[in-house]
C-alpha cells in the first residue's frame, strides 16, 4: 500500500497476547504495560506510537502511518517541527515557569498576537488556560458574572469534559453519568434559525435572562457540521439586542484549521460579525498544551475580576513560546493558503471518486468529514489504520480528517487511493 513503510524489527510482535513472551519494546509489550498502569478511560490503544516526523508517525513495531488526525486537530505543524522544537527548547532553557504572580515577555507577546489575529477591538483581553475544556470552563464562569441565569447551546455541541464545559456539551452519553451538572443550560436544535428567534422572542422575555449563546462555527465532534450561512449573523443580531454574550468555541476550528485564522472569519460562516468571546486551544501550541479565552471589548474582558479565576500553568512561558512559534511558522510558510488549497483538492478528489460508499464530503480547509452511506466508519478507519493511514470515525457514518496544516496534496492522495480501493459493498445496508 502506498504510504506504508513496514520495517519490522527482529522479534517484534512475537508472542503478542501471550504474557511474558511478548518482545521487549514491541507494541504488544507496551500495550500490556499500558493496560496494567493507565486508567481505562479510553479503551485499549490502537497502536503505541514512538516518534513522528512531519505528517507521519511510527509505531513501536516500526510501521509508518500518515497522520490525518494530528492528535485531533492539535499538531498544526506536524511532528517534530524544527522551529517549534527549537522555540520550546530555548524557552525551557531560559525560563520554564514562574506562576501567575509574575509575567513573562512570551506571555504578553502571545496575548497581543492573539488579539491581533482575532481582530479584537480596543479594551479586549486574553486569559490563558491549559486546554480547550478549561477555556470553556472559564467561559461558563464569565457567563455567571453577567447575573443572568440562562446559557443557550446547540444540539450536537461538544465543549469539553470538565463539569462546566460538560454542561454545555449535548451528548447524553457524556453528560448523564456525571449529573447533576451546573444548571441553566438549554439546547436549541442545530442550525434552526426559527428556534433561535423563538429563544429571544418577546413571549420568552426577549432573552433578557440569557447570559450567553455558545456556538461552534463548525461542530467537529458531531461530524464536522458547519452552521448554515446567515446563522451566526442572526445570532449576533439577537444576542446584541438582548444584551447577551455571543461566545464562539473555536477550540478545534481556530488557528488556521479551516484556512483562515478563525472559522468565523469566513464570510459565508461569520458574515463579518464580531463575537464577545472566543475560546481557543488544540492547534494553538502546535502540540504543546495551551488554551486561551479571547474576550472582546471592555465588557467581556472585565467579567472576571481579580481573584475570581486562576490557573497554575496557563500562560506558562514555554507554552506561550510554542504558541508564538506556531503562529510564526503558519505565517512564514503560507500555511493558511496551503490549508485552503490542499483541503479543497482533497474534498474534490474524494467526491470525484464516485464511490458508492461515500455519500457526502463536507468541511472547511483541513477539517473534513467523509460521510459514508452505511454505518461502517469504525470498520473503514480500522482498515485505513492497517493500511498506514490514521483517520477518526467520529460518528458511525462519519470519518473526520484533521491533518497537520503542512499536509501536501501528494500525501492527501494516499487517502484518496485508499478510499478508491474500498469494497463497494462494505458493511450492511443502512
Describe the structure concisely.
The chain has 430 residues and is an alpha/beta fold. It has helices at residues 27-37, 70-73, 82-92, 105-117, 132-144, 163-167, 172-175, 193-199, 231-242, 267-270, 297-301, 317-332, 335-352, 377-386, 409-420; strands spanning 49-53, 56-59, 64-67, 125-129, 150-154, 185-188, 210-215, 218-219, 225-226, 245-249, 277-280, 291-295, 358-364, 367-372, 389-390, 392-395, 398-401. Strand 2 and strand 3 form a beta hairpin.
Question: Can you walk me through this structure?
Answer:
The structure is a single chain. This protein has 430 residues and is of the alpha/beta class. Helix content is 34%, strand content 17%. The protein is built from 15 helices and 17 strands. The protein has a seven-stranded mixed beta sheet with strand order 4-12-11-10-7-5-6, sandwiched between helices. A four-stranded mixed beta sheet has the order 1-2-3-15. A four-stranded antiparallel beta sheet has the order 13-14-17-16, with helices on one face. Strand 1 (49-53) and strand 2 form a beta hairpin. Helix 3 (82-92) runs antiparallel to helix 12 (317-332) and helix 13 runs parallel beside helix 15. The longest helix is centred in the last third of the chain and has 18 residues, at 335-352. It is globular. The chain starts with 26 loop residues before the first helix and ends in a 10-residue tail after the last helix.
Amino acid at each position: 500500500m502506498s504510504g506504508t513503510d513496514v520495517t519490522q524489527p527482529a522479534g517484534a510482535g512475537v508472542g503478542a497476547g501471550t504474557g511474558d513472551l511478548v518482545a521487549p519494546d514491541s507494541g504488544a509489550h507496551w500495550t500490556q504495560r499500558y493496560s496494567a498502569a493507565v486508567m481505562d478511560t479510553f479503551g485499549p490503544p490502537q497502536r503505541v506510537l514512538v516518534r513522528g516526523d512531519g505528517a507521519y508517525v511510527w509505531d513501536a513495531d516500526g510501521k509508518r502511518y500518515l497522520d490525518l488526525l494530528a492528535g485531533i486537530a492539535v499538531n498544526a505543524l506536524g511532528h517534530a517541527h524544527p522551529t517549534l522544537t527549537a522555540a520550546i527548547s530555548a524557552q525551557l532553557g531560559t525560563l520554564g515557569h514562574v506562576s501567575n504572580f509574575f509575567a513573562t515577555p512570551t506571555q504578553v507577546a502571545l496575548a497581543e498576537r492573539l488579539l491581533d489575529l482575532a481582530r479584537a477591538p480596543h479594551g479586549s483581553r486574553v486569559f490563558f488556560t491549559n486546554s480547550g475544556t478549561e477555556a470553556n470552563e472559564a467561559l461558563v464562569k464569565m457567563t455567571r458574572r453577567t447575573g443572568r441565569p440562562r446559557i443557550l447551546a446547540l444540539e450536537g455541541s461538544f465543549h469539553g469534559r470538565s463539569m462546566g464545559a460538560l454542561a454545555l456539551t449535548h451528548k447524553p452519553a457524556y453528560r448523564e453519568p456525571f449529573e447533576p451538572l451546573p444548571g441553566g443550560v438549554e439546547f436549541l436544535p442545530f442550525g434552526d434559525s426559527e428556534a433561535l428567534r423563538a429563544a429571544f422572542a418577546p413571549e420568552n422575555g426577549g432573552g433578557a435572562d440569557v447570559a450567553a449563546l455558545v456556538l461552534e462555527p463548525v461542530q467537529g465532534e458531531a461530524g464536522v457540521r458547519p452552521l448554515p450561512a446567515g446563522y451566526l449573523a442572526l445570532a449576533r443580531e439577537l444576542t446584541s439586542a438582548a444584551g447577551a454574550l455571543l461566545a464562539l468555541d473555536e477550540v478545534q476550528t481556530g488557528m488556521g484549521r479551516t484556512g483562515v485564522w478563525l472559522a468565523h472569519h469566513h464570510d459565508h460562516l461569520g458574515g463579518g460579525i464580531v463575537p464577545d468571546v472566543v475560546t481557543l486551544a488544540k492547534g494553538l501550541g502546535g502540540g504543546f498544551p495551551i488554551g486561551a479565552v479571547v474576550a472582546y471589548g471592555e465588557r467581556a474582558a472585565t467579567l472576571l475580576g481579580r481573584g475570581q479565576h486562576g490557573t497554575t500553568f496557563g500562560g506558562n512561558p514555554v507554552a506561550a513560546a510554542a504558541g508564538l512559534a506556531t503562529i510564526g511558522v503558519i505565517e512564514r510558510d503560507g500555511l493558511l493558503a496551503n490549508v485552503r488549497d490542499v483541503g479543497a483538492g482533497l474534498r474534490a478528489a474524494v467526491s470525484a471518486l464516485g464511490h458508492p460508499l461515500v455519500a457526502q464530503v463536507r468541511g472547511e480547509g483541513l477539517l473534513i468529514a467523509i460521510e459514508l452511506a452505511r454505518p461502517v466508519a469504525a470498520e473503514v478507519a480500522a482498515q485505513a489504520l492497517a493500511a498506514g493511514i490514521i483517520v477518526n470515525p467520529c460518528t458511525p457514518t462519519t470519518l473526520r480528517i484533521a491533518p497537520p496544516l503542512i499536509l501536501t496534496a501528494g500525501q492527501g492522495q494516499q487517502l484518496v487511493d485508499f478510499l478508491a480501493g474500498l469494497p463497494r459493498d462494505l458493511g450492511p445496508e443502512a
